[in-house]
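R.M. (postdoc): so does anyone remember the format we settled on? I'll just put the structure tokens first.
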């Protein structure tokens, strides 16, 4: 059976609610602009939370808009810049699934089609409402015979379409959850990259903070190797807000704590620590998923540099306590996770790597003993892998090897690389 992907538009494919944005455009300069806009926003939220019918919300918003075709042109330009980041970087998914990736929205084709079509989504697979215009091009209403203009419209539409296949629904609102409630779709994914509505997330089969997460849990081809929302970053101690905001905006899952609580030891992937915070050596040994530590000050005496190196954990610190370290350190942490860069690390060989382009980056951290690189390259040779570039640096007892390869290889090779003698940590990186 084919898999079909039913994707919402407003606050899902795009970061914003299009009608709300159209209101801002059409009401610009009006003395009651903010009052009207807030009323339109109120109608939107009430419907998304299931507190009023969708038709009631739609009628109320259209009545307040006072928009025309020229405003729509401006809206389309605006929306093209507001496509959700995780959808934007996964264009290849839509091109590969052009027949089964559909947009189903209570929004309007007049602005949806120009925004999603460049991603390879077919016009015939865009289901949405349509505006009614007068002779001067003013929006006067909408086609109320369209099932998507009514309460439960998405359910009515899918019943009419009678799709034969497994259907996955992705959206942020109550109308998206109704598809799951109706039994018409296999699973419902509450999309929270832009907004999280408790009335929706608590009923979803899975909460997906990004489209990368949806692709990952369904083992579908994706633009990045691992969803960053799955990497837990603990922020401990006196850490300026800007430091955690930098990592949060990059997509990492942030928890702000006073201390390194035991319940997080096995899951933490990143530690961002304020000056004078100490990390217990035993906890550090057991933090098997930990990849990087950022320390806002001199790490000496607070976190074991040698123990981190033994466990393949990179440390970035600022022993001179410069004012810029609150921004510099988290950016170095992100550069390591995103690209493998270790430049200015306190305990790793310093490498600044080229950006990845159409390749998979295989990162191998190992003990610096004779024969490791020969064994690594023997695995590549055995699997007839096309190597684009390779980098190796050592520091004391630690070796850091980066190999960029063609993305087409037998995935069993990854198990072989992890099993090379003297391997400390191995990860795959692509984006």
């Amino acid at each position: 059976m084919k898999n079909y992907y039913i994707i919402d538009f407003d606050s899902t494919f795009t970061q914003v609610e299009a009608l709300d944005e159209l209101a801002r455009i059409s009401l610009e300069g009006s003395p009651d602009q903010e009052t009207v806009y807030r009323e339109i926003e109120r109608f939107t939220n009430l419907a998304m939370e299931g507190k009023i019918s969708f038709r009631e919300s739609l009628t109320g918003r259209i009545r307040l808009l006072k928009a025309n075709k020229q405003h729509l042109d401006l809206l389309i330009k605006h929306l093209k810049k507001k496509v959700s980041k995780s959808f934007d970087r996964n264009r290849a998914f839509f091109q590969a699934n052009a027949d089964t990736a559909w947009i189903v929205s209570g929004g309007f084709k007049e602005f949806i089609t120009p925004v999603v079509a460049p991603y390879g989504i077919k016009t015939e697979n865009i289901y949405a409402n349509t505006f009614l215009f007068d002779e001067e091009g003013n929006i006067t209403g909408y086609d109320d015979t369209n099932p998507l203009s009514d309460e439960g419209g998405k359910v009515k539409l899918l019943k009419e379409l009678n799709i034969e296949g497994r259907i996955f629904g992705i959206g942020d609102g109550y109308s998206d959850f109704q598809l799951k409630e109706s039994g018409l779709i296999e699973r419902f994914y509450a999309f929270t990259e832009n907004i999280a509505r408790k009335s929706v997330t608590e009923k979803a089969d899975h909460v997906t903070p990004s489209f990368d997460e949806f692709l990952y849990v369904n083992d579908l081809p994706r633009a990045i190797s691992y969803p960053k929302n799955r990497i837990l970053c603990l922020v401990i101690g006196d850490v300026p807000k800007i430091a955690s905001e930098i990592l949060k905006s990059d997509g990492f899952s942030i928890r702000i704590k006073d201390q390194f609580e035991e319940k997080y030891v096995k899951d933490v992937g990143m530690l961002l620590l304020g000056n004078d915070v100490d990390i217990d050596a035993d906890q550090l040994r057991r933090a098997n998923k930990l990849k990087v530590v950022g320390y806002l000050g001199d790490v000496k005496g607070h976190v074991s540099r040698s123990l981190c190196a033994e466990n393949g954990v990179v440390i970035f610190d600022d022993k001179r306590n410069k004012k810029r370290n609150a921004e510099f350190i988290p950016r170095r942490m992100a550069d390591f996770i995103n690209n493998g860069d270790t430049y200015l690390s306190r305990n790793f060989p310093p490498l600044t790597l080229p950006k990845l382009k159409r390749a998979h980056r295989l990162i191998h951290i190992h003990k610096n003993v004779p024969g490791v690189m020969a064994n690594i390259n023997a695995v590549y040779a055995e699997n007839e892998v096309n190597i684009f570039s390779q980098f190796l640096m050592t520091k004391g007892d630690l070796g850091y090897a980066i190999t960029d390869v063609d993305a087409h290889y037998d995935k069993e090779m990854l198990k072989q690389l992890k099993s090379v003698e003297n391997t400390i940590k191995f990860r795959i990186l692509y984006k």
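R.M.: ...and that's the designed sequence above, right after the tokens. Also worth knowing: The CA atoms of residues 32 and 316 lie 51 Å apart. The domain at 228-339 is CATH 3.40.50.720 (Rossmann fold).
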